[in-house]
Specification:
Elements (H helix, E strand, L loop, with lengths): L10 E4 L12 H11 L9 E5 H7 L3 E3 L7 H10 L3 H9 L1 E8 L2 E6 L4 E3 L15 E3 L5 H16 L4 E10 L2 E12 L5 E2 L15 E2 L1 H13 L8 E5 L26 E2 L3
Helix pairs in contact: 1-5, 3-4
């Protein structure tokens, strides 16, 4: 008889009934209420993945484009990319450099360090009365993740891992995937160097982007349209001990072989 192999099972559960979030809402309270509604209690080792849009709304990161005065720089870029100069002005304010631009495309290095289209500024699912409103990414997603983790610990007695996810495109692949822009309670990067593979060979370069893998998997449930499931409970995943943050996932510019940025100022 072959030896019994232990069953590995990880579950991803979209939490129901999260309401339309308003500035000042306590997300931990809303998540706690959703857990109770679903008959769930947090357990040690659980991880909660929360979409960045939910966090941005709670933090009041709304901007009305009618209040934005585009600079000369924004107007010049807007002519190239064929975008609203007010939107371009906001993108430049949220960025440190332009990576690539052409018609309909403006890719920047965000002030938080990652590179993405339009600085993550979004028109969809903003929930305001007109299309003039847009939503910026959270001011400090790692800080937000730490705060939500602490509040959930106060409410439930369990401090789960927390991931704040956003959808990013990739330069050499079609389609967006979830990435971690905020994280607390476990390492964002899982360094497996020094471990052994199935055949006993030492791993020399294997470093896993654990935070991004969780964000991408949860994105299958949260979606990007009308799914209405912006919070996902992850249970059963064995992660290494330690503390990390999403900033750990950003490759330093000096090691970025594809970096070719123009400063956004001026």
């Amino acid at each position: 008889m072959s030896p019994t192999v232990p069953l590995t099972q990880v579950t991803f559960t979209g939490l129901p009934g999260i309401p339309h979030v308003q500035p000042g809402d306590d997300l931990a309270v809303l998540i706690y209420a959703s857990l109770r509604r679903a008959g769930l209690t947090l357990e040690t080792g659980d991880i909660v993945v929360i979409t960045s849009k939910l966090v941005s709304k709670a933090e009041g990161r709304f901007v009305n484009l009618n209040t934005v005065q585009p600079s000369a720089r924004a107007c010049r870029v807007a002519e190239i990319v064929r975008k609203d100069p007010r939107m371009v002005e906001l993108i430049l304010r949220e960025s440190t450099a332009i990576s690539r631009m052409r018609q309909d495309v403006l890719i920047v290095r965000h002030r938080l360090g990652f590179t993405l289209a339009n600085a993550g500024i979004d028109h969809s699912n903003v929930g305001r009365e007109s299309d003039d409103w847009v939503l910026l990414l959270p001011e400090d997603p790692d800080r937000s993740a730490r705060h939500i983790r602490q509040r959930l610990a106060e409410l439930t007695g369990v401090a789960p891992g927390v991931v704040i996810s956003d959808s990013h495109g990739r330069p050499f692949r079609v389609g967006t995937v979830g990435v971690a822009i905020g994280l607390a309670g476990f390492p964002a990067v899982w360094d497996k160097r020094g471990q052994r593979d199935l055949y006993g060979r030492e791993l020399r370069v294997t470093v896993t982007g654990l935070g991004d893998e969780l964000a991408a998997a949860a994105g299958l449930i949260t979606g990007q349209g009308a799914e209405g499931l912006p919070v996902v409970l992850v249970r059963g995943l064995q992660v290494p001990a330690g503390e990390g943050c999403a900033a750990d996932l950003i490759r330093p510019e000096a090691l970025d072989l594809y970096a070719d940025h123009q400063e956004t100022g001026g």
